[in-house]
Specification:
Radius of gyration: 17 Å
Order of helices and strands: HHHHEHEHEEHHH
Distance between the termini: 17 Å
Number of strands: 4
CATH topology: Glutaredoxin
Number of helices: 9
Largest sheet: 4 strands, mixed
Oligomer: single chain
Number of domains: 1
Strand content: 5-15%
CATH class: Alpha Beta
Shape: globular
Strand order of the largest sheet: 2-1-3-4
Structural class: alpha+beta
CATH superfamily: Glutaredoxin
């Protein structure tokens, strides 16, 4: 997958990105200033971000990597750079980023994981999403040596995407609040299993 002219090379982008711990600290610092990540700033986005911090805190405390995923991670024999494009106001990001982080921590040596805001590199997310959309999160799995893209994943697991498609097909009878409640209930019940299965299937 190529990168559009005018968009920085992936090595430079990765070096600008944050570790999970630095990302979480940035989000906390921004909330203290009444802000969130990215260019769009509003009270609504700030409230989303505060709620998402609670979601990430819960996942950090309760999520465990299952045995099947651990076996697949243990079998890695190559080093990777994983870059996730996402933002603190995004509900899907809050449900997914901590899981990806725990997977890379469980591996320990083969995967270097970083996070970057969608607005940090103009044009990047549109290039990564082949339909030119700005949907996040987007996980980019690269070779650690040459930063060549091996796979991309996102913006959400297929089962969660089906919930979104159902909402779009029934917007005359289903509110956005109902959709978000159903979506996050699914994430809570799934406990990261579909995310781990879909991501490990790519490695």
């Amino acid at each position: 997958m190529g990168i559009k002219s005018g968009v920085m090379d992936l090595k430079t982008i990765f070096e600008k990105a944050l570790t999970y711990d630095d990302y979480r600290k940035l989000v906390d610092d921004l909330i203290a200033e009444g802000k969130t990540t990215g260019d769009t700033q509003s009270e609504k986005y700030l409230e989303y971000t505060k709620l998402n911090v609670q979601r990430m805190n819960r996942l950090d405390k309760t999520l465990t990597i299952d045995e099947k995923t651990m076996i697949q991670l243990d079998q890695l024999d190559h080093k990777y750079k994983w870059l996730l494009v996402g933002d603190a106001w995004c509900g899907d990001c809050a449900q997914i980023i901590p899981i990806i982080n725990k997977m890379t921590k469980a591996d320990g040596i083969h995967i270097d994981f970083r996070i970057i805001s969608r607005d940090t590199v103009p044009g990047l997310i549109e290039t990564l999403n082949e339909n030119e959309s700005r949907s996040i999160p987007k996980l980019v799995m690269m070779d650690a040596g040459n930063y060549e893209i091996i796979h991309t994943w996102g913006s959400r697991p297929m089962a969660a995407h089906e919930i979104l498609l159902n909402y779009k097909a029934h917007q005359n009878t289903m509110t956005k609040e109902d959709f978000e409640k159903e979506l996050h209930l699914w994430y809570a019940k799934d406990k990261g299993m579909n995310i781990m299965r879909e991501v490990t299937a790519l490695i």
